[in-house]
Design brief:
Radius of gyration of chain A: 22 Å
Shape of chain A: globular
Order of helices and strands of chain A: HHHHEEHEHHHHHHHHEHEHHHHHEEEHHH
Oligomer: homodimer
Structural class of chain A: alpha+beta
Mean pLDDT of chain A: 95
Strand content of chain A: 5-15%
Largest interface: A-B, 57 and 57 residues
Distance between the termini of chain A: 43 Å
Largest sheet of chain A: 4 strands, mixed
Number of helices of chain A: 22
Strand order of the largest sheet of chain A: 6-5-7-8
Chain lengths: 456, 456
């Protein structure tokens, strides 16, 4: 497909053209079972993240404004009873699924791929019924589009300061919605162009609520891009690879082969990972090591004199934060993570809220934790050593944290995560039927009905 | 003010902090009369541009989608009878005022400063009554914010491919709306942060309808940024100058002094210019020369053998386009501009619509026009030479086109432009009362009432 396309795409330039052909031409029959299964894992994990995130103060604030600008209560808000119009619901659900950064992470780009795409599709499915198969296929296409665009500008794009989930996610949302609207090739190209006009999001906003605006906009803006394209609102022929197009302006020396190579053969969603803990991935092996230490019979909390965390230089750079005051900051604090696991034996969203951060016991233990660089240790690994009174020490080395590509969460672990998160953010909801519906998504007749199982 | 601020801004970092203080602290009494007058010229010129632009196909398409997502018909659409909610109306009016690029141009940055700011303020004024003075003051503050941010990243920002009107305009809209909402300093800072999360717009979309999406979003997104900040949605301390903030990510080696220097003393709006013709500014002297040639008693259209346009290399680079097919392309075609002026003696929006472009007489004359570089000629100047049968030639050299900073349009010329544009895009509206109301804006008790004079 890609090779045919590159010689003469029906519309668009040499990069956007083949991508449009893939968006419209890909069929679920050609998608390997493993790929489809990973798509459902990602969607399920996303629902969990939104069930946990929907009560965050940031989401409450967004709802208080967007609720004033919603024309019809036509689309569900995950974990809540409010309903908004499709644009508003897509915005809020994307923000809520990503607010803790507890949704999926594409390991090639660190995009959170599901948040921009799934909320757009499920909101649309509530007003324009489509089957679960069609939604799944559109989801796969959207994820592929955003991750490939992200790869074409990685790693420089994020490093420069672009919040890649938002900047690239809007293309995924636009492509996925174009597909379910059954736009023709020219209008699908325009949908990508209309997305390029709205692509935004800065790393400077991470750690503040403003981050979630760009994530919300990536889902909302993709729907808007496709709806405007449907009316014939034109965009450029090459919104991605044109001299003043997305990849050139937001990337340095973009590699377009990442976008067009092996379309329909190689699936980026297979590089997707799911976090066991709601914090920066560099902390995964640290937390795993702490769980192991805590279950050691020789461990005793009262005897802890000090904790030494050793890891890759990136671990120290990103997560050596002894004094943090908010849950959001704590998500990137090794000191806080060590403390809550050793104290509570847990590292869920409840351990990263503002109350947990200011708990005196946690504060006291945090002060005893030291983070040091150990250049020999890979970024996926970490060693944690606890010094106890009477000069005893316990140490654990973890080579690959849970949730890394080498140690993916099992399906059952994802289900447990969903239940835990629902228990945190939406106590009255039993997610059992939601979990079943997602695993059986290809058989669901009306994909919009899944949202009824995720409402609070 | 600026110096005090830089030493210890009440909120924010060393760049965003002083800017916030200016947004909140500036008072109309301290603004020189000349500055206030230029603000009213810009607003009036904007209303004219929107009265002319509101029937464009792009605006029709936007209305057909946004009309489906408007919660209340509370805010007016310039030149039309539809009403949308404030977010939708701000979006459409910004797009419509800029769709022909016939609105104001800030000569230091080529930002079109009024389109992102005025529609946001007038839409808000329709739902939260404020005086004309307050609107004028907020407008001045918004324009100052966007142009200063633009200057801090110019000229690299636009050159790289950023549609600077949209990327910077959203900060102007956010600041202006924060001011009329009477947000405190912290929330005003967050409004800027919330704007930074949405700043978008690519030069690749120019010449297509997708351009207008980013312009519409700059006005809408600024309102949203301020409304979210009002609820307490937090942003970063230094959204502009932070290491992953707007200026660092979308600019190379930004000069922050352009933002903080002489705040309240130097006013960027004094560098604003107004176009006499709805096309690229490089064409202004060419068109002026053609008007002069056409009124020469020796000129005869039937005798024209050829036309030679000489100018700065930029003129050829931007406007040597012998074959164009749409009005939008024609706006940057020297060939088309020469042809319509020599044939019709006019260069208004009617001469740049799709019909005019495909008129056989225009096509025939276009083929006779040659654009050549004359390195000695400045970018503000041009020479046009017409060869007539019987070996006669007529030539005109124009040193400064009308509408350049050296030859600004007079107030009367702006009024004429508004009347012409209303005649094109909104025939049933006599803009006399609108014109009076803008000149008397400081005395208008309810600024929202001005919109009633601009409705179709």
């Amino acid at each position: 497909l890609a090779q045919q396309s590159r010689s003469a795409p029906a519309v668009g330039g040499p990069v956007s053209g083949p991508l449009v052909e893939f968006v419209l031409g890909s069929t679920l029959g050609d998608v390997p079972e493993k790929v489809r299964h990973e798509a459902k894992r990602s969607i399920l994990n996303f629902f969990g993240a939104a069930l946990g995130g929907n009560r965050d103060g940031c989401i409450e604030r967004m709802l208080s404004v967007l609720g004033r600008f919603s024309v019809r209560p036509e689309a569900s808000i995950i974990g809540r009873s409010e309903r908004l119009d499709v644009l508003g619901a897509a915005f809020v659900n994307a923000a809520s699924g990503n607010v803790f950064d507890f949704d999926d992470t594409h390991s090639g780009t660190i995009i959170h791929p599901t948040a921009p795409v799934a909320p757009a599709l499920f909101a649309m499915a509530e007003v324009r019924p489509i089957t679960g198969s069609k939604l799944l296929q559109a989801f796969l296409v959207g994820v592929e589009v955003e991750c490939r665009i992200g790869k074409s500008v990685s790693p420089g794009h994020y490093r420069r300061g672009w919040h890649i989930t938002s900047t690239c996610g809007i293309f995924g949302s636009a492509a996925a919605v174009a597909r379910i609207l059954r736009l023709d090739a020219e209008r699908t190209l325009w949908a990508l162009g209309n997305a390029s006009a709205q692509s935004a999001g800065l790393v400077e906003t991470l750690g503040t609520m403003a981050k979630s605006i760009s994530v919300g906009n990536s889902a909302r803006g993709g729907i808007l891009a496709a709806l405007l394209a449907e009316t014939g609102l034109t965009g450029p022929a090459e919104p991605l690879a044109g001299p003043r197009g997305f990849c050139s302006v937001l990337g340095d020396a973009p590699h377009f082969e990442a976008i067009t190579g092996g379309l329909g053969e190689r699936w980026e969603i297979l590089a997707n990972t799911h976090k066991p803990y709601p914090c920066g991935v560099v902390l995964n092996p640290v937390i795993d090591a702490c769980f192991a230490l805590r279950s050691d019979p020789l461990f005793s909390l009262a005897s802890v004199k000090g904790v030494r965390v050793e890891g890759h230089p990136l671990l120290r750079e990103r997560a050596d934060r002894p004094s943090v005051r908010t849950g959001r900051e704590a998500q990137v604090s090794a000191q806080h993570s060590v403390a809550v696991v050793l104290i509570h034996g847990a590292a869920g969203v409840a351990q990263y809220d503002d109350d947990a951060v200011n708990d005196p016991a946690v504060l006291a233990l945090r002060d005893k934790v030291q983070v040091v660089e150990a250049p020999g240790i890979a970024v996926e690994a970490a060693r944690v050593t606890v010094s106890l009174h009477e000069d005893a020490t316990l140490a654990r080395f973890v080579e690959n944290g849970r949730g890394t590509p080498e140690r993916p969460l099992t399906d059952a672990e994802i289900e447990t995560k969903v239940r835990d998160l629902a228990g945190y953010g939406c106590r009255l909801l039993d997610p059992a039927r939601l979990i079943d519906a997602v695993w059986e998504l290809e058989k669901v007749e009306n994909a919009g009905s899944v949202m009824a199982l995720a409402r609070g």
